[in-house]
């Protein structure tokens, strides 16, 4: 899990946090290698498949990050007993090779990506605001079932009648 706050700044876009963690800008103790490794593998499969293919000596690049990590683990010997994949180890290898530049020249952000993410984050912010307004409105009206609503209306009517009677009695006394 990437922390949502890094040095006092809230990262609204989770992809920014993963990109920062991939480069080492976020301390290793504040992240999970598996999460960052899966993010990096997914991004690299889409953006730089040839670099992965040559670095990990693969014939083809799989479609998903888990398949890629399994193949890479088999090539690098990141297997546990019984032939199970050690995901933490292969994610650590991938991140370290990305950071050291062994994978090649890679850009984790492009202007087009940033524009798209700004649009997505604006939509998320608008949804948050709409949800907050909706929550406030529901709080004001309360969660009234038809039965509760009837009882509330009856109480309000009774109070209004009582108030009218009190005013009438008070005006008679004067």
UniProtKB/TrEMBL annotation:
Comp. bias intervals (Basic and acidic residues): 137-164
InterPro entries per record: GTP-bd_ortho_bundle_sf
Basic residues bias (residue ranges): 165-174
Gene source species: Paraglaciecola psychrophila 170
Protein name: Ribosomal biogenesis GTPase
Keywords: GTP-binding, Nucleotide-binding
The UniProt record lists the keyword Phosphoprotein: no
GO molecular function, one term: GTP binding
Residue ranges of the region described as Disordered: 137-174
Coiled coil: none
């Amino acid at each position: 899990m990437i922390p949502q706050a890094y040095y006092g700044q809230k990262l609204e876009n989770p992809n920014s946090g993963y990109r920062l963690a991939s480069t080492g800008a976020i301390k290793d103790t504040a992240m999970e290698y598996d999460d960052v490794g899966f993010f990096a593998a997914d991004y690299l499969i889409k953006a730089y498949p040839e670099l992965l293919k040559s670095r990990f000596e693969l014939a083809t690049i799989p479609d998903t990050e888990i398949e890629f990590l399994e193949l890479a683990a088999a090539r690098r010997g990141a297997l546990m007993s019984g032939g199970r994949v050690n995901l933490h180890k292969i994610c650590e290898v991938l991140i370290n090779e990305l950071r050291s530049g062994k994978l090649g020249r890679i850009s984790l952000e492009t202007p087009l990506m940033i524009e798209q993410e700004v649009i997505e984050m604006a939509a998320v912010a608008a949804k948050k605001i709409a949800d907050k307004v909706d929550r406030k409105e529901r709080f004001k009206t309360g969660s009234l079932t038809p039965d509760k609503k009837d009882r509330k209306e009856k109480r309000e009517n009774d109070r209004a009648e009582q108030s009218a009677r009190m005013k009438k009695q008070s005006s008679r006394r004067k």
